[in-house]
């Protein structure tokens, strides 16, 4: 249950298809949400989490299970491929299975973009997302996986899905996508929500920017690069709000704002943005954030 068992949520729906959230007056106890309420195992065939007869589909598992293997931590998120596509070995059976799931589980939004949906409720602070929501993190990591798969297999059939998935990444939340356009900004939301409710989770935004640069390079579609650059402008405006004394905030709307395990990841993503843009400010951000994270450990 939420922090108070007698609190009834306010139901908010937004966008097309409708995003549905239950909003409470108090922070939701994570153990009250079925996804967290007990141990789960991973089904290697479906990449769903399993507890008894219950199955929880987290579509980011597809992309995470596809990305190049054998690289230092976080470096498999780089989309600046070498001649081996950043993996000298052939695709493994597990990678091929994950790629198959990415293709099979893609769902369509009204403008023809493709996305991937979570089939369980998930809490964030005072909100409980109802099944069927999508996420910039799953969107970006699955596009990254498709770019890797297309590079590795040389199969052009992946390009149509890559383009349509990219379209969802740059489609506003109100139209079924994952791009937050509040107050003239461009922010790629890991947890999309109605206006004023989005949490601004940082790592998904930075990953999405990198993916959009890679998409633009591979497809020649400048809309992706333009969206990436708008995302950069938004990051620069918001950056002071993420910088805490001893860490980088995971999200702007979060009580417990320090998650040290993400600091190194954010630094890698910032270095990648510097490589795409040639903008040395992002190397400086990465070094500064890494220094603060190390000091806080």
Keyword list:
three-stranded antiparallel beta sheet, alpha+beta, 297 residues, globular, 39% helix
Verbal overview:
The chain is an alpha+beta fold and 297 residues long. The protein has helices spanning 60-64, 93-104, 136-153, 158-169, 202-219, 222-242, 263-277, 281-296; strands spanning 10-14, 19-23, 41-42, 49-51, 54-56, 107-108, 114-115, 122-124, 127-129, 179-180, 187-188, 243-244, 247-248. The strands form 5 sheets. It has a 4-stranded antiparallel sheet, with no helix packed on it. The radius of gyration is 19 Å and the shape is globular. The chain starts with 9 loop residues before the first strand and ends with a helix. 43% of the residues are buried.
